[in-house]
């Protein structure tokens, strides 16, 4: 059936499909998305699609409807059931077929969505398929008239766990006590399979799969959602704390004192380990990652490449440059050996391997990577993001060393101080990131910039 263009374009976004269940997304809607996706990838030679879903109450029914749309177009479906997003990427890579993951990641319980990929976990975005699917869903998919495909089920959790452990060996590290907050998300499904048994003692927090998120939002990027893990690390005396988001493709780290570790520092640590294994390789980092990352990469003989914020940009550059690793300040980490896709679990294994291969506590280990102070991302609601950005750039004109517009505007102030302002694509928000040598410098710059943005 035909649908409102406004509704469809609100749900099928730049990188994925996401909306409120029952209002924007229902079984009929995703059945049409499945049929359109099958027609798209089938025209490219695909014969089957792998489907996984998270623990949200709506996910099994939506995944089943999508599968119905796929098999109605003659393609087969391999259903892997409950999965993290990187487990779905593993299946797409291992089976060499397109995939669909039903999740709304860190969004509240009333949301759900679909992350789509081609064979080998290659991303599907607006320019690589979502625009076609949008047009199909708006027009309404015609009735299918050919033979239906078949649906089979397969449990790949054990295969996924075995594969990621072959990429990062932790069997010979010293014993570690690890506190893990799964946020009632898919980390509660994958962590036991990957991190135990072995040299790790895992202390689980909120491992019960519950798509209503009864304890806190499954979004560790927000400091309030790390508070329970920080207290849990101190309570258990753990060597390290790990927090996963709802679909467990992102991992945040807390040290033995309960202090958060910057994702930029994790990017630097993993980059160092990957360059040790693959000398002179390319490392991707997005433009709000700490400058300490490219500085470290260059010092180790690697090639740092800077990119816009967003997984589609990083994945495209990973493929184009053959980069061995890529990191974002949002705690997405991408690995060439994982089909260029992101995996919070692989990043966690790298940190555990680094920590367990020496005797210092995590806070000391990470100190060499925490070079500069940073504000973190600060959002401001504005009526005219472009006008506010121009006002800020003008105010700093006489102190500016350089300005670039790769993604929003990045203003280099010299002496390791810089800031980036980016407008949201979907909300009336202006996002600010500031980095400088000291916390006092960051606070001063942040106060001045926000005074202009919000003034």
UniProtKB/TrEMBL annotation:
**Per the entry, which co-factors are needed?**
Mg(2+)
Instruction: Say which domain of life the source belongs to.
Output: Bacteria
Under the heading InterPro entries, the entry gives: A-D-PHexomutase_a/b/a-I, A-D-PHexomutase_a/b/a-I/II/III, A-D-PHexomutase_a/b/a-II, A-D-PHexomutase_a/b/a-III, A-D-PHexomutase_C, A-D-PHexomutase_C_sf, Alpha-D-phosphohexomutase_SF
Q: Which UniProt keyword terms apply here?
A: Isomerase, Magnesium, Metal-binding, Phosphoprotein
CDD domains in alphabetical order = PMM_PGM
Domain spans labelled Alpha-D-phosphohexomutase C-terminal: 377-450
Location of the Alpha-D-phosphohexomutase alpha/beta/alpha domain: 12-128, 159-258, 264-371
Q: Which family does it belong to?
A: Belongs to the phosphohexose mutase family.
Name of the protein described by the UniProt record: Phosphomannomutase/phosphoglucomutase
Biological source species = Rhodococcoides kroppenstedtii
Output the lineage of the source organism: Bacteria, Bacillati, Actinomycetota, Actinomycetes, Mycobacteriales
């Amino acid at each position: 059936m035909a649908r409102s263009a406004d509704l469809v374009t609100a749900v099928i976004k730049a990188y994925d499909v996401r909306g409120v269940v029952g209002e924007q997304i229902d079984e009929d809607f995703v059945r049409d998305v499945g049929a359109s996706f099958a027609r798209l990838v089938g025209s490219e030679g695909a014969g089957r699609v792998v489907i996984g879903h998270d623990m949200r109450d709506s996910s099994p029914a939506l995944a089943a409807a999508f599968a119905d749309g796929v098999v109605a177009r003659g393609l087969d479906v391999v259903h892997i059931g409950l999965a993290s997003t990187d487990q779905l990427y593993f299946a797409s890579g291992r089976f060499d077929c397109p995939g669909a993951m039903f999740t709304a990641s860190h969004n509240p319980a009333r949301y759900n969505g679909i992350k789509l990929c081609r064979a080998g976990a290659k991303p599907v975005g607006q320019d690589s398929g979502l625009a076609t699917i949008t047009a199909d869903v708006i027009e309404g998919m015609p009735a299918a008239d050919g033979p239906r495909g078949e649906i089979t089920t397969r449990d790949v959790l054990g295969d996924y766990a075995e594969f990621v452990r072959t990429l990062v060996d932790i069997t010979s590290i010293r014993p570690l006590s690890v506190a893990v907050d799964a946020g009632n998300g898919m980390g509660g499904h994958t962590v036991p399979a990957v991190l135990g048994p072995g040299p790790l003692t895992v202390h689980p927090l909120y491992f019960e799969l519950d798509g209503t998120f009864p304890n806190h939002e499954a979004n560790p990027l927000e400091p309030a959602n790390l508070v329970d893990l920080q207290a849990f690390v101190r309570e258990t005396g753990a060597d390290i704390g790990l927090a996963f988001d709802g679909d467990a493709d992102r991992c945040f780290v807390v040290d033995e004192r309960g202090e958060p570790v910057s994702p930029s520092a994790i990017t630097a640590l993993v980059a160092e380990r990957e360059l040790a294994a693959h000398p002179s390789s390319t490392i991707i980092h997005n433009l709000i990652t700490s400058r300490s990352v490219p500085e470290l990469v260059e010092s180790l003989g690697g090639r740092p490449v800077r990119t816009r914020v967003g997984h589609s940009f990083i994945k495209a550059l990973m493929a184009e440059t053959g980069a061995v690793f890529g990191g974002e300040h949002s705690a997405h980490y991408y690995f060439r050996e994982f089909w260029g896709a992101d995996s919070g679990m692989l990043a966690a294994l790298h940190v555990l391997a680094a920590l367990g291969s020496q005797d210092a506590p995590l806070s000391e280990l990470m100190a060499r990577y925490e070079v500069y102070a940073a504000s973190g991302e600060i959002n401001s609601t504005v009526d005219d993001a472009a006008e506010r950005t121009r006002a800020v750039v003008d105010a700093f004109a006489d102190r500016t060393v350089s300005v670039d517009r790769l993604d929003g505007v990045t203003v280099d102030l010299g002496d390791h101080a810089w800031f980036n302002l980016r407008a949201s694509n979907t909300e009336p928000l202006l996002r600010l990131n500031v980095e400088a040598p000291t916390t006092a410098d960051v606070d001063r710059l942040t106060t001045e910039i926000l005074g202009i943005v919000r003034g």
